[in-house]
Amino acid sequence: MEKQQDENPPIPKIDIVVVTGDIISGVPIDDVNFSETLTKQYQEAKSFLIQLSEKLFDGDLNRVLIMPGNHDVCWHICKQSMEPVDTKDLKNVSEMLMMSNSPYRLSSNDLKLYRIKDFELYKSRLIYFKEFFDDFYETQGHTFSLDDNEQVVNFVISDRRALFTGFSSLYGNDCYDHRGRICTETIFINGLRILKSALNDIPLKIAFWHHGLESSEYNIDHLNRKEVLPLLIDRKYVLGMHGHQHKGNIVSYEHHLNPELYMPIISAGSLCADPQAIPSGYRRQYNVIEIDEEKYTVKIHVREWVGNTILTSAKLQEFGGDGWTERNLPLLRARARGEIEQRRKEG
Questions:
Q1: Tens digit of pLDDT for each residue in 278-303?
Q2: What is the pTM of this model?
Q3: Residue among 224, 269, 275 at smallest CA distance from 246
Q4: What residues does CATH 3.30.750.180 cover in the chain?
Q5: 48, 183, 206 from 1: Cα distances, Å
Q6: Which residue, 33, 83, 93, 183, has most beta carbons within 10 Å?
Q7: SS3 40
Q8: What is the residue-averaged pLDDT of the chain?
C-alpha cells in the first residue's frame, strides 16, 4: 500500500475498507468440532481486521465495512435443521424444489431429498457470523440480524459524504442450496427506512453484497440480479460491489426504463482464498476503488499477489492489459443535476 502513490496513475490514500463476505473459510458439513473451528477462524479474522484498521485508520472500525458470504454459513446447523424425505411415492419433486420459499432441498452428494423441519434452528445458521459481527462493532452500535428481511446494515461515513449499505445475499442459502439471493423485502423495508431519515439526502449511495452476477460452468450460485438490481437503482444507489467470483472486474447494469442510467458493478478478487478456488489465470487480488464526485466517475485499480512475494498492479485482459479502468457514474450525475434543478425552483 505504501507504493500505491508511485503507481501510474497514482492511487490516493485509502479511506474505507469494504469486505464483501467470506470472512472465514468455514468447515465441512461433517466436522464434529465445527463450533471450536469456526470460533477460532473468526478470532483470527477479527485480529487481522483490527490490525488493518490500526495501520490504515488509527483503529477506527467505523471505516471497516463487513457483510457475510456463503463460507460464513454454518453447514452443520443447516443439516441439523433438516430431515430426510421419502421420495418413493413422490412424482413432483422438481416442483417441490422450485416452489417459492420452498422448505425442500436436494443433496447432490447422496441424491436425497431433505426438508427444513426446524425453522428457528435454520435461521441460526449465521449465528457464528452474528457473534463475530456484533462483537466487532460493539462500540459502533451495528448488529447483524438473523431475520431474513433485516439482514442489511447502513454504514454512514463519518463526514456523511457517502452511505454504504451492506446486504446479505444468503437468503435461503445453505449446505444444499448454493444460490445467492438478496431478500427483496429487505430492500423495500430498508428503502423506506432511508427515505424517512436524513440518509436519503446523501447523494453517494453504494450497495455491496457477496454473490456475483454470473456463475461459472454449470453452477447456479449467482445473485437474483433481475429482481434485485432494478430495485437498487430505483432506490438511488449509484454503484454496486460484490465478491464471490475470486477475480476483479467491472460491468454495467442498465436501468430497465432508461438504459442511459446504468449502475457500474465491481467484483473483487480474493485476498486469502484457497488457490484451487481462484479461476485459472488469476492470482490473489484486492481492489482499490477511487470515486470522483465532481467528475461523476469511478476508477478501479486491481492489485494482485505475484510470486508469493509482492502485491502489485494486475495485468487484466478485461482492462486491455492494464491494472485499472474507469467508468462513469450516470446515476450520481443525474442525482446531482436533479438536486441543482430543485434548488433553482425553490430559489
A1: 777 777 888 899 999 999 999 998 88
A2: 0.92
A3: 269
A4: 4-81+119-346
A5: 16, 36, 24
A6: 183
A7: helix
A8: 89
- Strand extents, DSSP E, the chain: 17-20, 64-67, 82-85, 104-107, 112-116, 152-156, 162-167, 204-208, 239-242, 249-254, 262-267, 285-292, 297-306, 310-313, 324-328
Residue 108 CB neighbour total at 10 angstroms: 8
Rounded CA gap, 312 and 1, in Å?
9
- Angle ∠(277,279,280) on CA atoms, nearest 5: 120
Starting at the edge strand found earlier in the chain, the sheet holding 204-208 runs 152-156, 162-167, 204-208, 239-242, 262-267, 249-254
Q: Contact 180/170 with Cβ under 8 angstroms?
A: yes
327, 291 Cβ separation under 8 angstroms = no
164 neighbors 157 (Cβ within 8 angstroms): yes
Instruction: Evaluate whether 290 touches 299 at the Cβ level (below 8 Å).
Output: yes
Q: Is residue 217 predicted with pLDDT exceeding 80? A: no
Using 50, 70 and 90 to split pLDDT, how confident is the model at 61? very high
Task: Show Cβ contacts of residue 221 under 8 Å, excluding neighbours closer than 6 positions.
Answer: 70, 178, 179, 180, 211, 212, 215, 244
Give burial (CB, 10 Å; 0-12/13-18/19+) of 303. buried
Q: Pull the grid cell for residue 128.
A: 457464528
CATH architecture of residue range(s) 4-81+119-346: 2-Layer Sandwich (3.30)
